[in-house]
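Hi R.,

As promised on Friday, here is the backbone we talked about, encoded as structure tokens. Could you run it through your design pipeline when you get a chance and send me back a sequence?
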């Protein structure tokens, strides 16, 4: 018996010696009194980078070049309070500080500041309000941060490294009106009521040539949906400098000098826009950033509020009033790519009489049986394929050759490091914020566990009935079909980086079978084309993506010719 006890004791001792050393490394983060004298709530982010190509806060990405971030929620953090970030903080792409390789790192901290909202639903939530930057945590005005410092990091060493945030991101400068580009901002009654504080909507308006010289003219409206625009993009009255530097490299398109290409395209658009025979339209880019994302997806939502109604019935009428829009459904068209592609199709469906055609390029998933590579109704886990013996992760991002640089799990874990409760301000979280019911705590119900990927099918059913665009079309075709005939146009590359083409295939399968009436629109694919192909078979993606505001015009004009009601104004805007 004594030998047995001794043998067991030796095994226990050996086992202890073979375990991973306990992580002793900690970071102590504080902010100085000159930042504010008020207690702060928010997400405290600690970032480590092994290079100084740019500040660590600008190197947290989904791709292979990403650096490290670890996040903790803070409440009531006061000047001088030292918040500990240790091995328990959730990190990306390494989940815990204890597993960070020893070495020299540039260290930076940032506090994404939250404010308290008392919602119409009676819930109280803490969220990062947009400050005019389009809901970007690393450039949000008012956020505190520290200057990067170079530090020798060793997780096995018992050490506390102090980081002090003594910098504040400055305010955004509002864009100024020009001859062609005007700006509008209104306080939304609907959104103010939902959020319990003043909430605003804005837009950048491109007015046509001769707008000020033809006060009698009334114009059709083109609504360009997409991510938050700081100003009207892709339009310049000035040609690029012939000596403009062309050494800049676009990894996405594998070309040099892309900035000059963009500048030339912006000038070319101006020349077309101001030419004698170009159609006279109003084009708007909407600003609807909110506490969850850089835009609202332009629909009513349990968590974001009635953005769809606010845009359609408050903002657009005010724009048409101030800038002499025709103000009727036959004279409004909507288009966009990616997020904007989903929005274009969704608003056309949800407001079928208010719009006369949508052009949806590379739309976010429009059939949740192909929510990228997840079938949210049948799959049990979003991150892994089902298998008895293998554990294979679902891809999240590919290039046109199918090479993978991020998995779905990794992309979601980056978001979880940046913010809990769908507060990261990133893509998967905003889908959840828009599509999910509101939870008992006032935040969006999770479609799946953010750590493990286990799907909640009760939430999936809510998504299906409210935001699965293919399902809604099929369910309601008897009433929607007659209102949408000839209005639906969808375009997608068959090698979309986010696998968005899979949902388009499913939508096309339904649309081709429609009867009474037949949908009468268009679905088209770009061969080997990545995100965000928009229907142009003649130019490379890096050019066609810069021509959204002109490429659909011939189809819009044809649509007006065949659908305008008797007595419609078809002349005042064709000077």
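Update: got your reply. Pasting your designed sequence below so it's all in one thread:
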């Amino acid at each position: 018996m004594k030998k047995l006890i001794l043998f067991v004791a030796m095994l226990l001792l050996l086992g202890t010696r073979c375990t991973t050393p306990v992580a002793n490394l900690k970071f102590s983060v504080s902010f100085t009194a000159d930042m504010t004298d008020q207690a702060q709530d928010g997400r405290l982010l600690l970032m480590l980078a092994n290079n100084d190509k740019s500040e660590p806060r600008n190197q947290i990405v989904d791709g292979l070049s990403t650096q490290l971030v670890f996040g903790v929620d803070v409440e009531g953090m006061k000047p001088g309070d030292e918040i500990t970030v240790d091995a328990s903080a959730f990190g990306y792409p390494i989940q815990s500080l204890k597993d960070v390789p020893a070495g020299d790192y540039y260290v930076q901290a940032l506090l994404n500041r939250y404010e308290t909202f008392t919602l119409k639903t009676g819930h109280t939530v803490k969220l990062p309000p947009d400050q005019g930057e389009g809901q970007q945590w690393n450039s949000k005005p008012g956020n505190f941060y520290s200057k990067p410092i170079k530090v020798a990091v060793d997780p096995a060493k018992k050490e506390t490294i102090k980081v002090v945030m003594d910098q504040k991101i400055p305010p955004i400068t509002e864009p100024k009106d020009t001859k062609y580009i005007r700006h509008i901002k209104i306080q939304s009654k609907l959104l103010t009521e939902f959020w319990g504080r003043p909430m605003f909507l804005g837009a950048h308006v491109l007015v046509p040539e001769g707008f000020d010289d033809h006060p009698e003219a009334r114009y059709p409206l083109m609504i360009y949906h997409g991510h938050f625009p700081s100003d009207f993009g892709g339009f310049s009255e000035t040609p690029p400098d012939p000596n403009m530097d062309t050494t800049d490299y676009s990894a996405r398109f594998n070309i040099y000098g892309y900035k000059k290409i963009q500048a030339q395209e912006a000038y070319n658009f101006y020349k077309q826009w101001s030419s004698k025979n170009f159609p006279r339209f109003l084009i708007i880019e909407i600003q609807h950033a909110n506490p969850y994302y850089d835009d609202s997806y332009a629909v009513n939502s349990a968590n974001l509020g009635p953005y769809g109604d606010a845009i359609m019935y408050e903002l657009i009428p005010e724009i048409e009033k101030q800038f002499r829009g025709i103000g009727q459904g036959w004279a409004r068209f909507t288009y966009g790519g990616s997020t904007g592609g989903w929005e274009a199709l969704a608003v056309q469906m949800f407001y079928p009489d208010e719009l006369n055609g949508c052009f949806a390029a590379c739309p976010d998933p429009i059939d949740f049986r192909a929510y990228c590579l997840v079938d949210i109704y049948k799959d049990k886990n979003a991150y892994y394929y089902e298998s008895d013996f293998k554990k294979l992760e679902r891809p999240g991002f590919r290039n046109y050759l199918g090479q993978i640089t991020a998995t779905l799990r990794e992309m979601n874990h980056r978001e979880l490091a940046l913010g809990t409760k769908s507060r990261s301000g990133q893509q998967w979280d905003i889908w959840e914020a828009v599509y999910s019911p509101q939870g008992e705590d006032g935040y969006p119900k999770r479609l799946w566990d953010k750590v493990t990927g286990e799907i909640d099918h009760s939430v999936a059913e809510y998504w299906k009935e409210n935001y699965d665009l293919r399902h809604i079309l099929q369910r309601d075709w008897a009433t929607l079909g007659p209102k949408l005939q000839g209005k639906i146009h969808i375009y997608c590359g068959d090698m979309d980086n986010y696998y968005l083409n899979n949902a388009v295939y499913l939508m096309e399968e339904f649309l081709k079978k429609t009867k009474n009436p037949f949908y009468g629109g268009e679905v088209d694919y770009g061969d080997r084309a990545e995100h965000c192909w928009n229907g142009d078979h003649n130019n490379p993606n890096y050019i066609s993506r810069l021509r959204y505001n002109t490429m659909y015009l011939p189809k819009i004009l044809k649509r007006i010719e065949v659908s305008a009601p008797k007595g419609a104004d078809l002349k005042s805007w064709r000077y």
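One thing I noticed while checking it: The chain has a mean pLDDT of 94.

Thanks again,
M.
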